[in-house]
Amino acid sequence: MGHDLRRTPLHDRHARLGARLVEFGGWEMPVQYAGIVEEHRAVRTAAGIFDVSHMGEVELEGPGALASVQQLITNDAGRLDIGGGLYTPMCLPSGGIVDDLTVFRTGAQRYLLVVNASTAAKDFAWIAEHTRDAQARDRSAEWGLLALQGPRAGAILQRLTRPDPTALPAFHIITGAEVAGVGGCFISRTGYTGEDGYEIGCPWDQAPRLWDALLEGGVPDGLVPAGLGARDTLRLEAALMLYGNDIDETTTPLEAPLGWTVKLEKGAFIGREVLVRQMAEGTVRKLAGFEMTERAIPRHGYPLRIDGRAVGQVTSGTFGPWLGKSIGMGYVAREHAKPGTALGVEIRGKTTRAAVVKLPFYRRSI
To answer: 147: closest CA among 55, 30, 51?
Structure first.
C-alpha cells in the first residue's frame, strides 16, 4: 500500500485490532475486523462503531450563510431551526451532482456541511466559490468523526454523554457536548446504515480516547468495531446512495431516487433550470433496484440486459447479509425501472436472471 495515503487519528487502533486496511478515497481505512457479515449483523441487532474521520466538514458563517447554502443545495435549508439538519444533493448547472451531503444549522448564521471523503477538496472549492457575504472554512483536519450505529447505539452513548443524546430527534445536531470526558463534541442523529444511530465529531487528537471509551462502554450491549465493508453492505440494503457509484456529476437527483430532496418552491439554486425541465418532461433513465433470482452476486460495472440487449450497468451490487439474497442497483431506461421487470445481469460472460424491485431493499422496524 502506498505511503502517500492519508491516515485518520485512529489508524493505530485499527492496526492493533487486526483490521484489514485498504485504500479508499486517498485514505488508508479498515475494510473489516472480524468479518463483514459478522459486523453487518452486529449493527442490525446491537451496535457497531465506524471510523469515518475521512469525511469532510465545511462551516459557513456570516450574514450570507443561509443564502449561500440555499444557492448550493437542492433541498431547503430555510426551514431549519438551530439544531436541525437535512440530507441533500449539491448540483452543477447541468443538474449533475457535485456531492451528496448533510447540512446542519448550528447557529443563527452558521451552518455545518458534512461531505464525502473522496470529494472533500472539490466540494470545498465549489462551496467557497459560491459563498457570498459569509466565510467558508474547511474544518476537516480539525475533526475526528465516529459513527455509532444500531439499535443499542442510543443506550451506549447515553451512559457516556452530556446532554442526553437519546432526546435528539433524527437529523438533528447538538454542539458543545461532552462524550466520555471529551469536550467540544458535536453529535448528530444520522448515519449510513439504515439503522438508528449517531455520528460524533470530536477534536482530531481526542478521537482515540473517544473510540476507546465507546468500545469499552459498549461491551455489555454487544458493540463491535466495523469497517467500510459492512458500511457498504448496510447502506446498500437500505438503498442509500454511494457517491462515485450510484450518483456523480453525470446523474441528476431526479434520475436517482432523490426527487424528494429537490425543493423547487424555495427559489433559485444551481441546477434548478435543468431539474424543472426534467420534472416537467420526465427523465430518460432511472436508478432501479433489483434482486437476483438466480444464485449470483452482481458487482459494480456488470452489464444489465433485457432480451439480450445492453440497457445499463450495475452501479452497486452485493450479497445482502441480513436479507439473505443478492441485490443491486443500476440505471435503466425509465420504462424498464418498474418493479417486476425482468433483467439480466452479465456475470463473467453469462447472463443471470434478476427482477426490478421497489426500493429500499431493507427498512428497519421502528
So the answer is: 51
d(CA 217, CA 195) in angstroms, rounded, equals 20
Query: pLDDT tens digit string along 145-173?
Result: 999 999 999 999 999 998 899 999 999 99
DSSP letters spanning 145-205: EEEEESTTHHHHHHTTEES-GGGSPTTBEEEEEEETTEEEEEEES--SSSS-EEEEEEEGG
What is the reported pTM? 0.97
Looking at the predicted structure, is the pLDDT value of residue 2 above 60? Answer: no
**176-189 pLDDT per residue, tens:** 999 999 999 999 99
Q: Helices H, strands E: what count in the chain?
A: 8, 20
The correct CATH number of 11-51+141-237 out of 3.40.50.300, 3.30.1360.120, 3.40.80.10, 3.30.565.10 is 3.30.1360.120
What secondary structure does DSSP assign to 286-313, as a single string?
A: EEEEEEESSS----TT-EEEETTEEEEE
CA angle 99, 122, 254 (to 5 degrees): 20
What's the pLDDT score for residue 251? 98
